[in-house]
Amino acid sequence: MAAVLAVVVFLGAVLGVVVFTLNRNANNANKQQAATQLASDARATASVLAVDRADLRTRASQTVASIDLQRAALAGNASALARIAEARRARIVVDRRTYGALPPAPRFTATASIIQAGAVVARVTLGLALNTGTVARAARAARLPGTATLLPTENGRVFAGPFRGRRIVVHDGGVRLGSRAFVAGSVHVPGSGIDLVAVEPLSDVTMNSVAYGRRTAIAAILTLLLAAGLAIRFARPVARVFGELSDQADHDSLTGLANRRLLDVRLEQELERARRYGAHLGLVLVDVDDFKQLNDLYGHRCGDQILRAFGELLARSVRKVDLAGRFGGEEFALVLPGTPLEGACVLAEEIRGSLRNLTVPGPGGESLRITASFGAAAFPTCTTVDELIELADRSVYEAKRRGKDQVVGAAAGLSIAL
What we know:
By secondary structure, the chain is an alpha+beta fold. Helices cover 52% and strands 24% of the residues. The strands form four sheets. Strands 11-12-10-15-16-17 form a six-stranded mixed sheet, sandwiched between helices. A five-stranded antiparallel sheet has the order 6-5-9-8-7. Helix 1 (2-64) packs antiparallel against helix 6.
């Protein structure tokens, strides 16, 4: 049941992350698509206003071409100029006198002049107010979606429409107006100081995402229920297989001790920990003396029994924090966290002494006794795993050279025999 629960919890977490990621991506995609569409709608509205601006320039040119205006300007007829300015909704400047007025800003303006003999006789300016009505008409012409709203802004502040007076800043395709969030797309209107911001409520944009999220959540729940049923059915055999595979991957099949792969990994970890906390780390390499002769004389089966018995002795002799392993062939290793060189040598000497009481039955019923040579090295004298192994290995060979059945500890380049 623990394995089943672990599988279900793990799969539930994975499915939760998948559902969350899919929903977030769907929301982001919808918001990005909506922001792109809103920006396109704002550009379409700006294009309609550009047409209005071009039309304003045309009307300004037509106004200065008017015979009535030219006559009144040349004659300096103030009453006629005032009448024409009011009728054309224009501002006319003649001899530094101004007739008529332009609509309030923000606005489009277009200016044309009456020129005679190279001199400006009159200057006519027409204006188009960029107010709510003008923007709404342009938005209708651009076919802005029904759920979207077009907000004209000047210096970041809305000057017309339902949010008049509010300051808005479009950031990452969205704006906040009070407590409501909107998806937004904006465009600057050329020839004016305004921006058009098309906004749509975020709740409307994500409506499809909510339905999509509901479907993915239902699919995830069904998947989890199916997985739970399968896990209940297959949890025990699968857990057993994985446990066996994990044990085989990390342990020697003959002795049951850690194998070389696990020893290397543990050495790296413990050396890093010792370096980080300023602690000691001891390494002892052990080589069974005359193993090849014993193997040749008594057979491989007896040799295997010797290695198994020696492995059991090592496993009984170390602490829980230590690691005993088969380094290769008849060579073994002890990884000793928090143990200086002297402590590693003391432990090796204790194990060497315990070997005197260890007997292995031979093929003819005789009792075989074995000895071993021990080599020790430690951090911080050795600063890398390779240095630890090399110095401990050299110490083993030194013990062999001195007659075997010895412990040799290496410190600061010197060999110390115990």
